[in-house]
Amino acid sequence: MTFWKFFFKHTSKHNCYKNIDNVISEDILLIKYLENKGHMTDIYLSIGNDINLYDLEKLCDSVGWVRRPLKKVKIAIDHSFLTVCLFYKNNEKKQLIGFARATSDNAFNATIWDVVIHPEFQGKGLGKALMDQTIKYLRYYDISTITLFADPQVVSFYRNLGFITDPDGVKGMFWYPL
């Protein structure tokens, strides 16, 4: 019985989520000197759910996404297995320009959600870099099946990254309240 108490104590949901945040505890320089509007900008990556929700809301607004209640957004982020942010620094203040998150069963599967790059930074390879880093960290945790939902206008972007429609012909199904 002692073994099982130890096992379950050390494999709790909280510990699993906590581990991914400890992979990187500091900002990482991802791209040095990215050209944007005639200026050279360094792009940084951070992992973890310490994100300014108002900055995320502004980022989502910039691409025309429907606003969601910030309280629910915080719950979603807090319960995500992984959150990845891209930003640059302007007078030492972080300017959020990219975001993605993933949920997972902590063993086999993960689903990537809410992938967004600010329009001023689209077409510069940042979406690919964001996805590459997201997949890298999911694979670090030995997640072998990575899925996502894509709007029709971005399906080709994800296909170019190696995503495919389910080869077994499985289609996603949804249930919505009336």
Automatic annotation (TrEMBL):
Q: Is Plastid among this UniProt entry's keywords?
A: yes
Keywords from the named record: Acyltransferase, Plastid, Transferase
Asked whether the keyword Translocase is assigned, the reply is no
Q: Which InterPro entries match?
A: Acyl_CoA_acyltransferase (IPR016181), GNAT_dom (IPR000182), NSI-like (IPR045039)
The molecular function terms of the Gene Ontology recorded here are:
N-acetyltransferase activity
One GO cellular component assignment for this chain's record is: cytoplasm
Short name of one Pfam family: Acetyltransf_1
Q: Which residues form the N-acetyltransferase domain?
A: 49-178
Q: What's the protein here called?
A: N-acetyltransferase domain-containing protein
Q: What gene is this protein translated from?
A: ycf52
